[in-house]
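Objective 1.3, modelling of assemblies. Example input:
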Amino acid sequence: MNVLKTKMQWHQVRQRVLSENVANADTPHYRGKDLAKVDFQPHSVVPPSAPRVGMVQTSAGHLAGRAPSDDPSFKKNGGPNFQVRPNGNQVNLEEEMTKSAENQIDYQTATSLYQQSLSVLRTALGRKA
Amino acid sequence: MDFIQSMKIATSGLKAQSGRMRVISENIANADSTGRTPGADPYRRKVPTFTSHFDKEANANTVALGQVKKDTSDFKTRYEPGHPAADQNGYVKYPNVEPLIEMVDMREAQRSYEANLNIVTATRRMIQKTLDILRA
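Predicted structure (tokens):
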């Protein structure tokens, strides 16, 4: 159940990232983003959080802040099949729409599984499923 | 809730594209607007720009229509000595609007609008699925 919850939260955040890409599909010099795949290792079963604002090191004695770009839960789009439009925009609308559909289907799977496990619990409790 | 933020971002895209559509329709409507006095400048084509800015509430980069700039390219001229806006040589300045380019731009705006709308629909469906858990 917890794993499913994490997955659902991940899909929620991904939907936000994808809608950000689509909304900025005509913004000059915009680079598309995507979430890194959810990792079910015990140490990282936390939902990928939104990027934080990084700290600037003003003195050598200060602690180094983690810049938002260092956040492993976010990754910039990249790869060989990559197109840049003349205005510097790097969002591929078709790709984003496919990703959005994929995200939606995966989310649906997760919610269905969640529902199923709920009904299993109900059966175990002796109630009608 | 992240889904609401997704909707907000997509809405910003919808707004920006409809604003772009407004500028395009203005250009097309004024494709033949000449000046009134001899030698006067006609309508100058407008170019919409997009800017991405960080929305603290949605915690994401939303898009907005930036400044509407003027196209600085040269006007077209046509020889029409009888026209009220004709100069001494009989030439009338016509707007630097190219209907074909505007139509292509319009198509693009339409597609981007549809894409944003699809995101809203997809997000809505996901919210619906979440609510279905409660119902089961």
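The two ends of chain A are 17 Å apart (CA to CA).
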